[in-house]
Write a sequence for this structure.
């Protein structure tokens, strides 16, 4: 956006849970545009507002604790500020946690931005007996400070007024660290020798070099001054190591010295009473009680989302079924009618069936986020999850996976470290989603009537155990690093803002429908073509409901090709073909088997009892649990972390499913043989 006297670009930045989204919505209203930052899956949110005839484009940067660039969010935020150079950076600071929030503020001052502080949650600070001297804070930082309460829309107009004034000033902030200034000046004097580096803030580069920032080091390594600079840096690092224990801790310690001084001068606490947050945290974050309370809390979240969404999903399913019937009966050409009804409409229906599940799940998660409890869940679970090579924040996606892997994978966006996030995503499909339950129910009813409940539960346990075992193995052999230490802000508990909750819910659901939906529709249409066509050509749309016709289709050919591979398990070509349909959606496996065996679903149980043994049936159930994620899950994996990891997940799960099914067959047959001999 070009900068002129009537149009400006401002950026909002702050720690997670400081009320940034609430302020963004208060400033922009409904003028919001959602997308992704180039090259990454981090959400990009932009909006606009007008004040006194001036237009302001607002860019909502990811919530970050620092600009050290250890995570995608930090890289996105830092690169935007460095490269795009917005007219003004509005740093949202939580008034109830000034000490922690000012760490990011100092880093923004190091970059040399045109900075403005929005001191949010002033109402909560006052209730907690925290008084902040705004004038003194402005003087010490050299930055304008506006007290607000975004949730109550207090101070928003004043903030807009100050924004309109500050965008013109172009007053770039500065920060000095007295004990480090001699080192910083020495580094700057060397950097100045390269004309190509003068387009950057040299003091900022010097500070980042003291931190051994890899990005900045790579930026300067090609410089003609690098050899001289590197020699000087090594000597400086030796001196800092003697003073601070570790050289990189020097700048961190000096930042906190300044922060401590500021806080001691501007903050006064007038009440020593326990706050509601403190009282709740004494119970909810307790090492033992917190875990015991977390389990029913997650169960309620899961129960709410799937029980409430069930009738809506059923209505969508029914509505698209009726629409498909209308299309079939009103279009004379059977090919076009079937393509539209069984291909396109079924594909769109498959996508929209996820809509209620996603909506209610993300609604529930947004409520927990806005209430303040969500930030505590990783803190409570971190120690347990770390034992399996997973971060504490993986607990939410893994539990959500028992309902649906699609929103579960999308929920990993809260995991800052990229390796931790990828690991959580690629093991998530092993969590047994609700779509697999019909498969378990049919097989358990057909071959394990006395132990149906135990058999079904064993499938959920098997998936969880495999996920945790693979997490340990992948961590050791692929990612070769420990989970990132958990640094999390514990915001005060408060009543959720319904508008923010609804907007967050819609943004997340829309993102899935837009990106993953196209892949799902394409996949459903592909299976339709494979089912109604064969080597002899078009078989007719009746092949979808006729076991004799479908035997001549490409789907049947694929199934018969797979039969020799699965012969050790004792599955026929129909069972193998059903697995192909299961790639679209796991719940389709049962209906596909009914068509392939030429019976209705109500008679399928008796057929399964004849063509499967207990061992081959249990192996088939395990294979359906583990093998290739459904198309929607694969689509969302590709959306979140790219094709490379989507293909990796597809391949490793196929191999793992085969190995597990084979082991079950061999061990199970051996046990049965042993008992028959005895």
């Amino acid at each position: 956006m070009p900068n002129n006297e009537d149009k400006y670009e401002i950026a909002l930045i702050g720690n997670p849970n400081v009320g940034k989204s609430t302020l963004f919505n208060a400033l922009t209203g409904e003028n919001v545009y959602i997308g992704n930052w180039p090259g990454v899956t981090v959400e990009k949110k932009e909006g606009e507002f007008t004040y006194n005839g001036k237009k302001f484009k607002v860019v909502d940067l990811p919530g970050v604790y620092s600009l050290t660039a250890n995570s995608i969010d930090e890289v996105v935020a830092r690169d935007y500020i460095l490269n795009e150079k917005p007219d003004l950076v509005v740093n949202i600071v939580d008034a109830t946690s000034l000490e922690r929030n000012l760490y990011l503020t100092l880093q923004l001052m190091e970059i040399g931005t045109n900075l403005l502080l929005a001191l949010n949650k002033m109402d909560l600070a006052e209730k907690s007996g925290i008084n902040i001297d705004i004038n003194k804070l402005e003087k010490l930082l050299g930055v304008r400070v506006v007290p607000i309460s975004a949730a109550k829309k207090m101070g928003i107009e004043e903030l807009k007024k100050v924004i309109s004034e500050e965008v013109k000033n172009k007053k770039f902030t500065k920060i000095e660290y007295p004990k480090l200034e001699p080192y910083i000046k020495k580094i700057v004097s060397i950097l100045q020798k390269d004309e190509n580096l003068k387009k950057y803030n040299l003091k900022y580069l010097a500070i980042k070099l003291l931190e051994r920032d890899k990005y900045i080091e790579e930026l300067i390594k090609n410089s003609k001054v690098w050899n001289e600079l590197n020699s000087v840096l090594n000597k400086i690092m030796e001196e800092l190591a003697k003073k601070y224990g570790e050289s990189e801790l020097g700048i961190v310690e000096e930042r906190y010295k300044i922060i401590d001084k500021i806080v001691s001068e501007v903050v006064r606490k007038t009440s020593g009473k326990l706050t509601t947050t403190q009282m709740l945290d004494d119970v909810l974050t307790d090492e033992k009680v917190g875990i015991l309370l977390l389990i029913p809390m997650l169960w309620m979240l899961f129960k709410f989302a799937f029980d409430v969404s069930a009738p809506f999903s059923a209505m969508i399913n029914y509505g698209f079924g009726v629409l498909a019937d209308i299309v079939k009966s009103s279009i004379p050409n059977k090919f076009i009618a079937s393509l539209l009804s069984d291909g396109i409409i079924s594909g769109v229906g498959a996508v929209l069936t996820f809509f209620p599940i996603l909506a209610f799940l993300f609604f529930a998660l947004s409520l927990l986020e806005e209430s303040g409890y969500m930030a505590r869940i990783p803190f409570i679970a971190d120690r347990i999850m770390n034992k399996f090579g997973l971060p504490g924040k993986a607990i939410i996606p893994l539990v959500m996976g028992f309902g649906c892997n699609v929103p579960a994978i999308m929920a990993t966006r809260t995991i800052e470290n990229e390796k931790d996030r990828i690991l959580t995503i690629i093991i998530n499909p092993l969590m047994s989603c609700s779509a697999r339950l019909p498969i378990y129910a049919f097989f358990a009813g057909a071959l394990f009537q006395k132990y149906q409940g135990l058999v079904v539960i064993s499938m959920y346990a098997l998936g969880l155990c495999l996920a945790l075992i693979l997490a340990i193995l992948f961590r050791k052999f692929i990612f070769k690093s420990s989970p990132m230490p958990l640094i999390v802000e514990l915001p005060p508990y408060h009543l959720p803002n319904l508008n923010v909750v609804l907007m967050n819910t819609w943004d997340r659901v829309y993102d899935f429908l837009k990106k993953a939906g196209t892949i799902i529709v394409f996949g459903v249409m592909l299976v339709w073509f494979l089912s109604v066509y064969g080597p002899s050509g078009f078989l007719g749309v009746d092949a979808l409901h006729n076991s004799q016709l479908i035997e001549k289709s490409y789907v049947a050919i694929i199934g018969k090709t797979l039969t020799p591979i699965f012969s050790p398990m004792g599955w026929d070509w129909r069972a193998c073909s059903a697995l192909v349909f299961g790639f679209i959606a796991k719940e389709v496996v049962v209906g596909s088997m009914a068509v392939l065996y030429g019976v209705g679903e109500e008679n399928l149980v008796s057929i399964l009892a004849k063509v499967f043994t207990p061992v081959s049936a249990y192996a088939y159930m395990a294979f359906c649990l583990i093998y290739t994620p459904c198309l929607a899950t694969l689509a969302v994996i590709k959306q979140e972390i790219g094709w490379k990891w989507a293909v990796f997940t597809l391949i490793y799960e196929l191999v793992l499913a085969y190995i597990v099914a084979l082991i079950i067959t061999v061990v199970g047959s051996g046990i049965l043989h042993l008992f028959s001999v005895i």
Q: What stands out?
A: The longest helix spans residues 289-330. The CA atoms of residues 379 and 487 lie 9 Å apart. The mean pLDDT is 84. The chain has 30 helices and eleven strands.
